Amino acid sequence: MGKRDFSEAFRTFVNKHITSVEQIEVLLILVANPSRVWTVAEISAILRSSPNSIASRLEGLRQAKLAKGDPNAGFQYTASGRSHDMVELLSEEYGARRFSVIELVFSRPDAARSFADAFRLRDEGDERTR
Amino acid sequence: MSGLAEVIYLLCTATSLLCGLLLLRGYRRSGTRLLMWSAVCFFCLCVNNIMLFLDVIVLTNSVDLSVWRLLPALLGVALLCYGLIEEEAA
Amino acid sequence: MFLFLSGMLMMGFLVAAVFFWRFWARTGDRFFILFAIAWTLLGGERLGLAIRNTPEEPRAGMYFIRLAAFLLIIVAILYKNRASSR
User: Fold this and answer.
1) For residue range A12-40, what is the model confidence (pLDDT) as tens digits?
2) Which is the most buried residue in A86, B76, B85, C41, by most CB within 10 A?
3) Residue A129 resides in a domain
Protein backbone atom coordinates (compact mmCIF):
# COMPACT_ATOMS: atom_id res chain seq x y z
CA MET A 1 0.00 0.00 0.00
CA GLY A 2 1.66 3.23 -1.11
CA LYS A 3 0.61 6.84 -0.92
CA ARG A 4 -0.75 6.61 -4.47
CA ASP A 5 -3.64 4.57 -3.13
CA PHE A 6 -5.16 7.57 -1.42
CA SER A 7 -7.82 9.50 -3.28
CA GLU A 8 -6.86 12.70 -5.05
CA ALA A 9 -9.05 14.76 -2.72
CA PHE A 10 -7.43 13.21 0.36
CA ARG A 11 -3.90 13.78 -0.94
CA THR A 12 -4.74 17.41 -1.70
CA PHE A 13 -6.18 17.87 1.78
CA VAL A 14 -3.08 16.42 3.49
CA ASN A 15 -0.61 18.27 1.26
CA LYS A 16 -2.37 21.54 1.84
CA HIS A 17 -3.14 21.45 5.54
CA ILE A 18 -0.95 18.89 7.28
CA THR A 19 2.71 19.74 7.69
CA SER A 20 3.78 17.27 10.38
CA VAL A 21 2.82 14.08 12.17
CA GLU A 22 2.47 16.03 15.40
CA GLN A 23 -0.17 18.15 13.71
CA ILE A 24 -2.17 15.00 12.94
CA GLU A 25 -1.94 13.97 16.61
CA VAL A 26 -3.14 17.40 17.75
CA LEU A 27 -5.98 17.34 15.24
CA LEU A 28 -7.05 13.87 16.41
CA ILE A 29 -7.19 15.06 20.01
CA LEU A 30 -9.41 17.97 18.99
CA VAL A 31 -11.74 15.89 16.84
CA ALA A 32 -12.14 13.20 19.50
CA ASN A 33 -13.93 15.76 21.69
CA PRO A 34 -15.37 18.30 19.27
CA SER A 35 -17.21 20.30 21.89
CA ARG A 36 -14.30 20.62 24.29
CA VAL A 37 -11.95 23.61 24.38
CA TRP A 38 -8.30 22.57 24.81
CA THR A 39 -5.44 24.66 26.11
CA VAL A 40 -1.95 24.42 24.67
CA ALA A 41 -0.68 23.09 28.01
CA GLU A 42 -3.22 20.25 28.10
CA ILE A 43 -2.35 19.05 24.61
CA SER A 44 1.39 19.36 25.16
CA ALA A 45 1.00 17.29 28.35
CA ILE A 46 -0.82 14.52 26.47
CA LEU A 47 1.64 14.44 23.59
CA ARG A 48 4.70 15.14 25.77
CA SER A 49 5.79 17.83 23.38
CA SER A 50 6.93 21.42 23.88
CA PRO A 51 4.14 24.00 24.30
CA ASN A 52 5.74 26.18 21.63
CA SER A 53 5.58 23.40 19.12
CA ILE A 54 1.95 22.55 20.00
CA ALA A 55 1.00 26.24 19.82
CA SER A 56 2.36 26.46 16.27
CA ARG A 57 0.51 23.24 15.25
CA LEU A 58 -2.72 24.70 16.63
CA GLU A 59 -2.10 27.94 14.77
CA GLY A 60 -1.63 25.89 11.57
CA LEU A 61 -4.93 24.11 12.19
CA ARG A 62 -6.63 27.42 12.88
CA GLN A 63 -5.38 28.81 9.56
CA ALA A 64 -6.64 25.66 7.85
CA LYS A 65 -10.04 26.38 9.46
CA LEU A 66 -9.94 23.02 11.23
CA ALA A 67 -9.73 24.61 14.68
CA LYS A 68 -10.88 27.88 16.20
CA GLY A 69 -9.76 29.84 19.21
CA ASP A 70 -6.51 31.40 20.41
CA PRO A 71 -3.63 30.50 22.76
CA ASN A 72 -5.23 32.32 25.72
CA ALA A 73 -8.78 30.98 25.51
CA GLY A 74 -7.84 27.58 24.10
CA PHE A 75 -8.69 25.81 20.87
CA GLN A 76 -11.69 23.85 19.71
CA TYR A 77 -12.37 21.67 16.68
CA THR A 78 -14.44 23.50 14.08
CA ALA A 79 -14.36 21.72 10.70
CA SER A 80 -17.65 20.76 9.10
CA GLY A 81 -18.89 19.43 5.79
CA ARG A 82 -16.21 18.32 3.37
CA SER A 83 -13.25 19.21 5.58
CA HIS A 84 -14.82 17.24 8.40
CA ASP A 85 -15.18 14.21 6.10
CA MET A 86 -11.50 14.54 5.26
CA VAL A 87 -10.55 14.73 8.94
CA GLU A 88 -12.60 11.57 9.63
CA LEU A 89 -10.87 9.85 6.73
CA LEU A 90 -7.49 11.01 8.02
CA SER A 91 -8.28 9.62 11.44
CA GLU A 92 -9.32 6.30 9.88
CA GLU A 93 -6.31 6.01 7.56
CA TYR A 94 -3.89 7.12 10.27
CA GLY A 95 -5.12 4.22 12.36
CA ALA A 96 -5.18 1.68 9.55
CA ARG A 97 -2.01 2.47 7.61
CA ARG A 98 0.01 4.96 9.56
CA PHE A 99 3.23 4.70 7.55
CA SER A 100 1.53 5.47 4.24
CA VAL A 101 -0.04 8.57 5.81
CA ILE A 102 3.33 9.67 7.24
CA GLU A 103 4.92 9.14 3.83
CA LEU A 104 2.18 11.29 2.30
CA VAL A 105 2.78 14.08 4.83
CA PHE A 106 6.45 14.22 3.97
CA SER A 107 6.10 13.94 0.20
CA ARG A 108 5.77 17.10 -1.82
CA PRO A 109 2.73 17.30 -4.08
CA ASP A 110 3.72 16.64 -7.68
CA ALA A 111 3.64 20.09 -9.27
CA ALA A 112 3.21 18.72 -12.79
CA ARG A 113 0.16 16.74 -11.74
CA SER A 114 -1.46 19.65 -9.95
CA PHE A 115 -0.68 21.85 -12.97
CA ALA A 116 -2.60 19.48 -15.27
CA ASP A 117 -5.39 19.03 -12.72
CA ALA A 118 -5.87 22.80 -12.52
CA PHE A 119 -7.33 22.64 -16.04
CA ARG A 120 -10.17 20.38 -15.02
CA LEU A 121 -13.25 22.54 -15.20
CA ARG A 122 -15.36 20.23 -13.08
CA ASP A 123 -15.24 20.77 -9.38
CA GLU A 124 -12.90 18.54 -7.43
CA GLY A 125 -15.78 17.65 -5.15
CA ASP A 126 -17.17 15.42 -7.90
CA GLU A 127 -14.15 13.21 -7.68
CA ARG A 128 -15.21 11.45 -4.55
CA THR A 129 -18.41 10.21 -6.13
CA ARG A 130 -16.59 8.93 -9.22
CA MET B 1 -7.80 40.70 -43.26
CA SER B 2 -8.10 42.66 -40.05
CA GLY B 3 -11.42 40.92 -39.33
CA LEU B 4 -9.69 37.58 -38.95
CA ALA B 5 -6.85 39.10 -36.94
CA GLU B 6 -9.37 40.62 -34.52
CA VAL B 7 -11.00 37.25 -33.91
CA ILE B 8 -7.63 35.55 -33.43
CA TYR B 9 -6.34 38.14 -30.97
CA LEU B 10 -9.56 38.08 -28.97
CA LEU B 11 -9.46 34.28 -28.88
CA CYS B 12 -5.87 34.37 -27.62
CA THR B 13 -6.81 36.96 -24.99
CA ALA B 14 -9.77 34.91 -23.78
CA THR B 15 -7.77 31.67 -23.72
CA SER B 16 -4.92 33.15 -21.71
CA LEU B 17 -7.38 34.73 -19.29
CA LEU B 18 -9.15 31.37 -18.85
CA CYS B 19 -5.83 29.56 -18.26
CA GLY B 20 -4.82 32.21 -15.74
CA LEU B 21 -8.08 31.87 -13.82
CA LEU B 22 -7.98 28.06 -13.82
CA LEU B 23 -4.39 28.05 -12.58
CA LEU B 24 -5.20 30.61 -9.88
CA ARG B 25 -8.08 28.37 -8.75
CA GLY B 26 -5.68 25.41 -8.78
CA TYR B 27 -3.16 27.37 -6.72
CA ARG B 28 -5.80 28.22 -4.11
CA ARG B 29 -6.67 24.53 -3.86
CA SER B 30 -3.30 22.86 -3.86
CA GLY B 31 -0.99 25.65 -2.70
CA THR B 32 1.58 24.56 -5.31
CA ARG B 33 3.74 27.59 -6.06
CA LEU B 34 4.30 26.61 -9.68
CA LEU B 35 0.60 27.17 -10.27
CA MET B 36 0.82 30.70 -8.93
CA TRP B 37 3.71 31.57 -11.28
CA SER B 38 1.92 29.94 -14.22
CA ALA B 39 -1.23 31.90 -13.44
CA VAL B 40 0.76 35.15 -13.34
CA CYS B 41 2.40 34.17 -16.65
CA PHE B 42 -0.96 33.65 -18.35
CA PHE B 43 -2.28 36.96 -16.99
CA CYS B 44 0.81 38.65 -18.44
CA LEU B 45 0.23 36.92 -21.81
CA CYS B 46 -3.36 38.13 -21.60
CA VAL B 47 -2.12 41.72 -21.16
CA ASN B 48 0.26 41.16 -24.10
CA ASN B 49 -2.64 39.98 -26.26
CA ILE B 50 -4.78 42.95 -25.23
CA MET B 51 -1.95 45.35 -26.07
CA LEU B 52 -1.44 43.61 -29.41
CA PHE B 53 -5.15 44.05 -30.11
CA LEU B 54 -5.07 47.73 -29.15
CA ASP B 55 -1.89 48.38 -31.10
CA VAL B 56 -2.79 46.60 -34.31
CA ILE B 57 -6.58 46.77 -34.48
CA VAL B 58 -7.72 49.79 -32.47
CA LEU B 59 -4.81 52.21 -32.91
CA THR B 60 -3.92 50.62 -36.28
CA ASN B 61 -0.23 51.06 -35.55
CA SER B 62 -0.56 54.86 -35.29
CA VAL B 63 1.32 54.63 -32.02
CA ASP B 64 4.06 52.03 -32.07
CA LEU B 65 3.61 49.74 -29.08
CA SER B 66 5.70 46.94 -30.57
CA VAL B 67 8.40 47.09 -27.90
CA TRP B 68 6.06 47.93 -25.01
CA ARG B 69 3.72 45.04 -25.67
CA LEU B 70 6.60 42.57 -25.47
CA LEU B 71 7.43 43.61 -21.91
CA PRO B 72 4.43 41.97 -20.16
CA ALA B 73 4.95 38.78 -22.20
CA LEU B 74 8.63 38.74 -21.30
CA LEU B 75 7.90 39.34 -17.61
CA GLY B 76 5.31 36.56 -17.62
CA VAL B 77 7.52 34.02 -19.34
CA ALA B 78 10.46 34.91 -17.11
CA LEU B 79 8.32 34.33 -13.99
CA LEU B 80 7.05 31.04 -15.41
CA CYS B 81 10.64 29.90 -16.04
CA TYR B 82 11.52 30.94 -12.49
CA GLY B 83 8.58 28.89 -11.17
CA LEU B 84 9.52 25.85 -13.26
CA ILE B 85 13.18 25.96 -12.23
CA GLU B 86 12.34 26.54 -8.58
CA GLU B 87 10.00 23.56 -8.72
CA GLU B 88 12.60 21.25 -10.24
CA ALA B 89 15.35 22.45 -7.91
CA ALA B 90 13.35 21.99 -4.72
CA MET C 1 15.29 46.63 -29.10
CA PHE C 2 12.36 44.75 -30.62
CA LEU C 3 14.65 42.03 -31.94
CA PHE C 4 16.51 41.73 -28.64
CA LEU C 5 13.31 41.40 -26.59
CA SER C 6 11.82 39.08 -29.17
CA GLY C 7 14.86 36.82 -28.88
CA MET C 8 14.61 36.77 -25.09
CA LEU C 9 10.94 35.94 -25.34
CA MET C 10 11.64 33.09 -27.77
CA MET C 11 14.19 31.64 -25.40
CA GLY C 12 11.70 31.85 -22.52
CA PHE C 13 8.97 30.11 -24.51
CA LEU C 14 11.36 27.34 -25.54
CA VAL C 15 12.65 26.81 -21.98
CA ALA C 16 9.05 26.48 -20.76
CA ALA C 17 8.36 24.05 -23.65
CA VAL C 18 11.27 21.84 -22.54
CA PHE C 19 9.88 21.75 -18.99
CA PHE C 20 6.43 20.77 -20.27
CA TRP C 21 8.10 18.06 -22.34
CA ARG C 22 9.79 16.75 -19.17
CA PHE C 23 6.47 16.86 -17.33
CA TRP C 24 5.06 14.60 -20.06
CA ALA C 25 7.96 12.19 -19.64
CA ARG C 26 7.40 12.15 -15.89
CA THR C 27 3.62 11.85 -15.70
CA GLY C 28 2.79 10.29 -19.09
CA ASP C 29 -0.02 12.85 -19.40
CA ARG C 30 -0.52 13.80 -23.09
CA PHE C 31 -1.85 17.14 -21.90
CA PHE C 32 1.78 18.23 -21.51
CA ILE C 33 2.75 17.25 -25.09
CA LEU C 34 0.08 19.65 -26.34
CA PHE C 35 1.40 22.36 -24.03
CA ALA C 36 5.00 21.71 -25.10
CA ILE C 37 4.09 22.02 -28.79
CA ALA C 38 2.03 25.15 -28.12
CA TRP C 39 4.92 26.88 -26.35
CA THR C 40 7.36 25.79 -29.06
CA LEU C 41 5.02 27.41 -31.59
CA LEU C 42 4.91 30.64 -29.56
CA GLY C 43 8.71 30.60 -29.63
CA GLY C 44 8.58 29.91 -33.38
CA GLU C 45 6.33 32.93 -33.89
CA ARG C 46 8.98 35.14 -32.32
CA LEU C 47 11.61 33.61 -34.59
CA GLY C 48 9.43 34.12 -37.66
CA LEU C 49 8.82 37.79 -36.78
CA ALA C 50 12.52 38.30 -36.13
CA ILE C 51 13.50 36.77 -39.48
CA ARG C 52 11.08 39.07 -41.26
CA ASN C 53 12.26 41.85 -38.96
CA THR C 54 8.78 43.28 -38.56
CA PRO C 55 6.76 43.82 -35.39
CA GLU C 56 3.61 44.24 -37.47
CA GLU C 57 2.10 40.90 -36.80
CA PRO C 58 -1.01 40.86 -39.03
CA ARG C 59 0.92 41.86 -42.12
CA ALA C 60 3.55 39.25 -41.46
CA GLY C 61 0.87 36.57 -41.29
CA MET C 62 2.53 35.19 -38.19
CA TYR C 63 -0.66 35.38 -36.21
CA PHE C 64 -1.59 32.01 -37.67
CA ILE C 65 1.20 30.50 -35.59
CA ARG C 66 -0.15 32.25 -32.50
CA LEU C 67 -3.63 31.00 -33.39
CA ALA C 68 -2.31 27.44 -33.70
CA ALA C 69 -0.56 27.69 -30.33
CA PHE C 70 -3.66 28.91 -28.51
CA LEU C 71 -5.86 26.37 -30.29
CA LEU C 72 -3.51 23.66 -28.98
CA ILE C 73 -3.91 25.06 -25.46
CA ILE C 74 -7.70 24.93 -25.91
CA VAL C 75 -7.44 21.34 -27.20
CA ALA C 76 -5.29 20.50 -24.17
CA ILE C 77 -7.96 21.88 -21.81
CA LEU C 78 -10.67 19.94 -23.65
CA TYR C 79 -8.52 16.80 -23.53
CA LYS C 80 -8.08 17.21 -19.78
CA ASN C 81 -11.81 17.50 -19.25
CA ARG C 82 -12.68 14.62 -21.55
CA ALA C 83 -10.05 12.41 -19.95
CA SER C 84 -11.33 13.16 -16.46
CA SER C 85 -14.94 12.30 -17.30
CA ARG C 86 -14.11 8.64 -17.99
Assistant:
1) 788 778 889 999 999 999 999 999 999 99
2) B76
3) no
Record: contact C15-B84, CB cut-off 8 A: yes
Q: Tell me: the pLDDT tens digits for C24-56?
A: 988 888 999 999 999 999 999 988 888 887 766
In the Cβ-directed half-sphere of B14, how many Cα atoms lie within 13 Å? 9
Contact B11 C70 (CB under 8 A): yes
B53 vs chain C: nearest CA distance in angstroms?
10
Measured between beta carbons, which residues in chain C are less than 8 angstroms from residue B2? 58
Domain count, chain A: 1
- Domain assignment present for residue A25? The answer is yes
CATH of the domain at A55: 1.10.10.10
- Which residues of chain A fall below pLDDT 70? 1-4, 108, 123-130
Q: Pseudo-torsion of CA A103, A105, A110, A111, nearest 10°?
A: -160
Domain-embedded: residue A42:
yes
Amino acid at residue number A17: H
